[in-house]
Amino acid sequence: xxxxxxxxxxxxxMFVAIGLGFAIFSVSYDMxxxxxxxxxxxxxxxxxxxxxxxxxxxxxxxxxxxxxxSSVGHFDWDILFLIIGSICLYGLMLDHLGLYIATPLLVIFxxxxxxxxxxxxxxxxxxxxxxxxxxxxxxxxxLIFPLWxxxxxxxSLLAQILIPVGIIIxxxxxxxxxKGK
Amino acid sequence: MMELxxxxxxxxxxxxxxxxxxxxxxxxxxGTLIGVLPGIGPVPTIxxxxxLTYILPPTAGLIMLAGIYYGAQYGGSTTAILVAxxxxxxxxxxxxxxxQMAKNGRAGAALAIAALGSFFAGCFATVLLAAxxxxxxxxxxxxxxxxxxxxxxxxxxxxxxLASGSLPKxxxxxxxxxxxxxxGTDVNSGVARFDFGIPELQDGIDFAxxxxxxxxxxxxxxNLAQKENRVDITDKIGALYPNRxxxxxxxxxxxxxxxxxxxxxxxxxxxxVLSSFASYTLExxxxxxxxxxxxxxxxxxxxxxxxxNAAAQTSFIPLLTLGIPGNAVMALMVGxxxxxxxxxxxxxxxxxxxxxxxxxxxxxxxxxxxxxxxLPLIGLWVKLLKVPYRVLFPAIVLFCxxxxxxxxxxxxxxxIMAAFGVIGYIWSKLKCEGAPLLLGLVLGPMMEENFRRAxxxxxGDFTTFVTRPLSLSLLVFALALVILVAxxSIRKKxxxxxxxxx
Lengths: 181, 502
Prior knowledge:
The structure holds 2 protein chains of 2 kinds.
Chain A: H1 6-27, H2 41-60, H3 77-97, H4 99-111, H5 119-140, H6 157-180
Helix pairs in contact in A: 1-2, 3-4, 3-6, 4-5
Chain B: H1 2-15, H2 18-35, H3 42-54, H4 58-83, H5 89-141, H6 145-161, H7 167-182, E1 184-185, E2 192-193, H8 207-225, H9 244-266, H10 271-286, H11 298-314, H12 316-322, H13 328-339, H14 347-351, H15 353-374, H16 378-385, H17 389-408, H18 412-430, H19 434-457, H20 464-467, H21 469-486, H22 488-501
Antiparallel strand pairs in B: 1-2
Helix pairs in contact in B: 1-15, 2-3, 2-4, 2-15, 3-4, 3-8, 3-13, 3-17, 4-5, 4-13, 4-15, 5-9, 5-10, 5-11, 5-12, 5-15, 6-7, 6-19, 6-21, 7-19, 8-17, 8-18, 8-19, 9-10, 9-11, 10-11, 13-19, 17-18
C-alpha cells in the first residue's frame, strides 16, 4: 500500500479526527428526537458525515495512479512563528501596553518574517503605521483602544510573564538577524 | 414597468444623498486600494474592511460594502493586467489576454476596456436585478423550512462543484464550516455548544475572524515563503483609450459576456469563475482568428471581464431574494446584514425598501464612480503596485488585527484569528479550500434552524424533504450537479479546465 496522494491522505485524516471530536462533544448535549431535536442532534450527524467522508478521502489517497505535485509542501516554521507569534503578542500587549507601544512592536517583529528584512525600513514603517493608526483609527473612526500602558501591578499574572518573555524572544531574534547580515 | 421605475426612483433618492454618495465613493476607493495589492482578492479585502462599515447606519454600511466589493474586483483586474498576479480565480482569465496586451504596450487600452466592459455589464445586470428581484422574492414567500433547507443544500453543492480541486474534500470543508457555525449558544435550547467553557465562544465565531485568518494571514505567510517574486511591472501604460479596432473587437465580446455572466451569476456557487471562463471559451470559439487569443486579443479581455462583473452583480439576486449567499463574498454580505439586524431574505424588500433599492442603485453608481475615478487615477495604482512586499505585509497584518479587534473590542478575537491563520496555512499545504468553509460557517445556524423546523412540522418524518415537490426538485438538481461532476469524462474535462487556468 503506497500513499498516492499525500495531501488527500493527511487532509482525510484531519477530517476524520475533527469529525470524531465534534461527534464526541455532541453526544454530551441532549440529542432529542427527530421531531423535537435537541442541541446535539444536528451537529452529531454532521460530524459523522464529515468523519465518513474524510475516511473516503484518506482511502482514496491509496488508490489510482501516483499524483504529481501532491506532496505536502514544506512548512516555513520561522515565518509561521514570527507572524502568529507577533499577532498573539500584540493581543496581549494591546490590553496592557496600549496602542502606541503595541503597534510599532507588532510591525517591527512581524517584518522579521520577510526574507529581505531591513531594520531601517521596519522602523520607518512602524512609525508611519503607528501615526496612521492614530489618525485613521483613533481620530478618524473613533475606535476605542487602550492607548497608553497601565501600571505593571495591574496586569494579569499571565501578561506579567508572557509579555516580557515574548518581547525578549523577539528582540533576541531581531539582534541575531541584524548580526547575521 | 412603471413599478420598476418607481422602485428605481426610490433607490436613487436614497443613494443620491450626499452622505450615501460619499460612502459609496469611500468604499470604491478603499476597495480598489486594498484590492489592487497583489494576491489579495475580494474576500480578504471585504473581510478586512468589514468592521469599518459596522459603525455606519445599515443602508450606508451596505452601500459602502458594495462599493468595496466592486472596488476590490476592479483593483484585482488592474493587478491582473499590469503584473499578472490574479487575486482570485476569476481574475486568472483576465491575465491571459489582459497582461499580454500590457506587454504589447497597450496597458492603458486594456485597463480602459476592462473598466468600460465592467461598467456596461454592471448597468445591464443592475436593471436585471431590479426587474427580477421582486418576482423571485414572491416565490420565496412560498418556501417552507424544508424548501429552505434543500435550497441551502443546493447552494452549498453548487459552490463546491465549481471549485477546483477534489470534490469530497470540498464537501468536507463545507461540513466543517457548518460545524464551526454550530459553536455558540443554541437558539432553541439556550445550551452553549462546543464552547469549552470559554465565555467568548458562547456568541459563536465571527465569520470575519475566520475569513481574515484563513484568507488574509495564511495568504501572507504563503507569499512570504516564496521570497520576493514580484517583478515585471509594466511601466508604460500607453494611451489610455483603446483605438478603433480594439473597440470594434471588444464591443461584441462585451455584450456576449454580459449576457452569459448575468445568467450564470444567478446560479448558486462560483458564478464569477465559471462565467469568466465560459466567456473566454465562447469568444475563442466564435473568433475568426482564435490563434490571437492568449497573445493580447481585446475580445479575450472584454468578454470575461464583462461576464465576471455581470455575474458579481446578479449573484446578489439569490442573496437579496432568498437570503442564500451564493459565494464567499455574499456570505460576508450576509454576515454584515445580520450585524445590522437585517435578516437577509425576501422580506427585506418589503420591510426595508429604502435599503433594498438604495443598495441596488448604489451598485450602479459604484460602477460609474469606478470608471470616472479610477481610469484617471491609474498612475496612482501603478505606484501602489511598486511598494515592496516587506513594507506592505506588516500593514496588512496590522489592519487585519485592528479590524478583528474592533468587532467586539476584545483581544480574544485576535487569538482566534491567529489560530485560524495557522489552520489556514496548514490547509493551503493540504490543498483544502477556504471558500466552502466560509459559506458553511455562515449558513450553518440558518440551515440547522430550517432543518429542525421542517422536521418539527412533519413530526419527525424525514421524507418531508422529498415529498414536497419544490424541495424535491431542488435536491434532485443538487444531486444531478454532484453526479455530473463525478462522471469520469466531465471530471477529466474539469481538471483540464482548471489546469489551463493555472
